[in-house]
Amino acid sequence: MSTALPGYNVGYLDEQTKRMIRRALLKAVAIPGFQVPFASREVPMPRGWGTGGVQVTASIIGGDDVLKVIDQGADDTTNAVSIRSFFAKVTGASTTTCTEDATIIQTRHRIPEAVLREGQIMVYQVPIPEPLRFLEPREAETRRMHALEEYGLIYVKLYEDIAKYGHIATTYAYPVMVNGRYLMDPSPTPSFDNPKLHQSPALHLYGAGREKRIYAVPPYTDVVSLGFEDHPFEPQRFEQPCAVCGSTGVYLDEIITDDAGGVMYACSDTDHCERAAALASAHIDDLEEARA
Amino acid sequence: MYVAVKGGEKAIANAHALLAKEGRGDERIPRIEHGAVGGQLAVLVARVMNEGSLYDPELAARAIVQAQGDVLEAVTLVRSYRTTLHRFGYTLPVDTAQLPPQRRVSATFKDLPGGQQLGATFDYTHRLFADRGSEGPAAAATNDDEAMPRVADLLGTEALMEPERPEGFDDPEPADLTREPTIFPMSRAERLQALARGDEGFLLGLAYSTQRGFGRTHPFAGEIRVGEVEVEFDAPELGFAVPLGRVEVTECQMINQFTGNAETPAQFTRGYGLVFGRAERKAMSMSLVDRALRADEFGERIVAPAQDEEFVIQHSDNVQATGFVEHLKLPHYVDFQAELGLVRKLNAERQEKA
What is the CA A235 to chain-centroid distance, rounded? Predict the structure, then answer.
C-alpha cells in the first residue's frame, strides 16, 4: 500500500478557516475584552500548548511579517522554538528574537520588557479565557454574567483575599476591566505585566484554542486591573537587579544555583537581557577606553 | 547556570532523533507497514478514525505507525490533517435501515424480521492465549434480499417508542461541531457529533456510571448492527445525489426508560450511537450517554455527571484533555515565580506580626 503523504496549505490552516478566524478577530477588536466564540481547529501541537495562539498567528501572518515567539519571556524555551520553527516551515515568514524587529509576537505568559509600538501585534496563548471560570464553572452562566455586567463575584473573591491574607492574593491572570465594560483574563501573565496593557499602542490578540474563544485589546484602550480604593492593584516588584545584565524594574526568574539555598535572579525576557548585557559591556569598554 | 535554559533547538532535534530510534525497535525485525496495521489491527484503526473524525483507514493506519501505537497521538495526527481539508459540501444522511448487516443483534427480541446475525465478534470467544486461528468457514452470504427494519422502528409503529422525529420537528440543519463555535446548551445533533469523536474510555466510564445509579436510564440494547453503508453526496449543480462509496459503521439503538403521565401515553425513549468501523463498545457507550444527556428533554432531575452536558462534552474530547493535562510539562516558571514571591511575602508578614 503506498498512498502519497497528505499535503498542507500555506500557513497550515485552510483558507476557509483563516477567514472564519479573521472574522472572529474583527469582532473581538470591535468589542474590546469580549470573548468571541470561534470554531477552533486542531493544530499539529497538543491542546494547551498554544493552539489558540497558533491559530490566530496562522490567520494573520503574511509574507512580509516578522515573527517572534516567546514562552515564559524566553525565545529559546523548547515550546517557543517549536512554534517558531513550525511557522518558519509552513509560512516561510521570517522570524526573529528581537522585540523591536517583530511585527507579530506570539507569547505564552509574558509581555516583553521593551515598550511595544504601533503596528505590532501581540498574540497570547490562553489556557482559560474566562476570568469568572473558577468562581462559576458553567459557560452558559458566565456568558450571562458578562452580558449583564454582573461582576460582583470577582470583587467578592478579591475581598476574601484581603480578609484572609491582608492583600489581594492573585499574582497572575490578574483580572482586568477593558474599556470600562468587559471583565477580561489577560492570560496567565504575571500581574507585573498588567500595566503594559493600558493604553498600549500595540494590538493584543488572545486565542484560546481548547476553549474556542478569541478576544482582543485594541491599541490605546483602557485596561484597568481590579482593585479597591483602600487596596489598589499592586503589581509585583523585585528587590534585586538581574544578575546577568543588571536591569532593574524587569521580571526576574529565580534560578537555583546549588543545593545549599543559593539562588540568582535573571531576566525572564531573554532578548531584553542580551541587549542590556551588550549595552552594559559596551559601556564598560567605553569607560576603559576613556581611562586609557 | 543561566545557560541551562538555552539550547532548546538542539534539545528538540536530539529528542526527536531518540524518539525515532526508540520507535524503530529491533532493526533485525522488519518495520510494520501501515497496510498490515489496517488489515490486522482494524479495531484500533476504527478507534483512531472515530476519535479523529475522519473515515480514512489508510491514513489512520499510517498515524498509528507514526505515533508508535499511541492512540491519542495518532488521533491528533488525523485531526490536525482533517481540519485543514477544504469543505465543499455535506453528504446525505446515511440510511442505516438499508445497510446489509455483517452483524446484527437485538437484546430485546428473540427473533425479529431479518433475524439475528452474530457476525464478527469477540463475544463468546474464550479469552485464552492461542495461536492465530484458522481461516474458518467462509462467511455465509448475508440475506440481502430480506428487509431488516430497525428494531426501534418496529416499536415505533405501535407508538410504544418515542418517534424518531418529535412532534413539530422541522428538521433543522444539524450544526457542524468542527466548523462552528460551541455554544451551550447544544442541540442533540451537535452533542452526538461530540460523542462520536469522544474518548472511548471516558464515554465507557460515563455510560457505566449510568448503569450503576448515577443517572439511571434503564437501557436495553434494542439493536446493534455493523455493516457497510452507502454514502451519497448531494451535488446541487447536478440535481441528484452521487454515490461516493461505502463506509463501515456500527450503529446502536438503545431503548430506555419510558416516559408518560396522565396526559401522554407511556413510551420508551431512545439513545443513539453511530460510529465508524467495528466499534461496538463505543457505539453502546455513546447511546447510553446520549440518553442520559436528554434528561432535560424529559424533565428528569439532573443529578449525575453523565447527565450534565457541559461536563460530558467539555471533557470527552481526548485531544483537548490530553493536551491540557500534558501541558503541565511546559515551563511555568513565570507564574510559579509570582506565587513564590507571594508565599514568601505572606510568611514574612506573618513573622513580622509574631
Answer: 16
